[in-house]
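Morning F.,

Quick status update on the modeling queue. The single chain you submitted on Monday has been processed. Sequence for confirmation:
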Amino acid sequence: MIVIPAIDIRQGNSVRLKQGKIDAETIYSSDPVFIAKLWKEKGAQRIHVVDLDGAFNGMNINKDIIKSICMEVDIPVEVGGGIRDMNKIKEVFYMGASYVILGTAAIYDPEIVRKSIDKYGPKKIIVAVDAKDGKIAIGGWKDITQVGILELVNRLKKIGVEEILYTDISRDGMFTGPDLLGLEKLCESSLRIIASGGVKTIDDLIELKKYEEKGVFAAVVGSALYTSDFKLEDAVKKVQ
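Structure tokens below.
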């Protein structure tokens, strides 16, 4: 299983939010590019980057930072946050991203998801399945829809999606452990799954690894790495 460190960028800083709330923000660095290099040196095989300004209000102020991250680390970078049309998808790939993460577009304009898969291939497009109380959240997690998790996943499969990023919002940044029950249900979809939210210890990652044969091939880890609950290099050794 791959451990993917997260870099959330807001107003040029590397930050962490609790449950996606801006008023629960902690700034960890004013240099996200340095953070990306640090995770690479400590054994990361992929970097997870989210443009929070893009996700919350469509602002494009972190473009140069994201481009620099993609240029400075020689490992794949997946990028999400406010990517809701074909032009923006093209722009993010042009920055050097290896994968694009789509979220809100999967609800409001699933045709964008289908077109992006047709153009770039299913291995390049990841769809974020962000949920709270079983319902999908969009717009930087501000808005909770009436669309259920499995309802969305079934739609995604029909348009050719092969890889999803599943986040239980209530667990994000809260150190409560991953949503194993939710993942168990998602594994029935036969999609490749990146698990996100709630990881506090290496033991949490070991638990997630038990689902590897069912499709959970990676885990995004954020706050636990920034608060030194465990070291990335130790986690990489344990789960590989």
